[in-house]
């Protein structure tokens, strides 16, 4: 309102004409329709022309590239020394935990004793095989002659060798005695044979004389028959003696064969036992290697340099179960990767080498940049979260050290949580809007 109007007073309002009002409303409607049209045209052009990158989002966690190393023991045992604590830095090969070696030492001692017994027994069997009367102690035992246990084993096997040799000599003596008896018997039989042969010569001449007298009718036939019977009986006795001598000589030959056989039998028995003991020695050697390996394993060593994590044993005297993880070692100076869990419904969109963006959950979210990486590994099958029962595929995203340096001053370490966005194919906003409708139509037309 101007100063003139204020002095002159209010001006009376003029009535608004209807045509002017209609014209104003029409202009407003036209402007509104134009605005709406421009909006839809602009939105349509944007939804068709604009390219948006799709992405599969998944929770992730930074892990070391070579995985956390577990410290385990195959057979377990009782903890005798605990040399580290949670968070301790260890070097590769450093002893971190020691188990009670009592059982392992006992096993090795038992096997070592059995090996000594087998070795000295083998030496005794070799002596029997070779027909020796003295025991040749193996070098492995001869060098330990001062050991009471070894000395006892040597004395025992030497005594057994002597006893068996005496037994063999006794059996040989028995057979030799039989041979001598048979030879004496042959000597007697030969003497009888000579006597009978001499008697047979006399009877032969007597038969010829009596036959001459009988022919001259000087003696009776009974006398001739008697002399001939005596001569025939003597010839029969001579044949029997010859047969007895041959039979006795056969017994001597048989006894000599038996004498040879007992030596062969003992050697064959020794060789059979020797093969068995050699096989047993091989088995015992393997058991000794296993026992010594078990004794070496009482010292649990760090497989890599790193930091102790998830220490499961806290008390000396505690029991470590077979195969139980005593602790984990997180390697130091190892590359970091992001391990993410992908839903089974999204795994078809993930391929090796795909670009991925990693957003850290720690630190200032506005100041921390997104890191770029690439999908390096994709699990061949699903895993299951034992706590929630949710199934997922595990993927590994490789993030270069240069990208990790962008997070400074925030230091990225293993275990840090993150959000992973794996970029998929590029699509327009219209594709995103129409995809649910297209999927629904596909399912609808495929229903029977």
UniProtKB/TrEMBL annotation:
The chain crosses the membrane at residues 30-48. Residues 336-424 form the AprE-like beta-barrel domain. Pfam families: Beta-barrel_AprE, HH_AprE. Keywords: Cell inner membrane, Cell membrane, Membrane, Transmembrane, Transmembrane helix, Transport. The keyword Zinc-finger does not apply. PANTHER family: ALKALINE PROTEASE SECRETION PROTEIN APRE (PTHR30386:SF17), MEMBRANE FUSION SUBUNIT OF EMRAB-TOLC MULTIDRUG EFFLUX PUMP (PTHR30386). This is Membrane fusion protein (MFP) family protein.
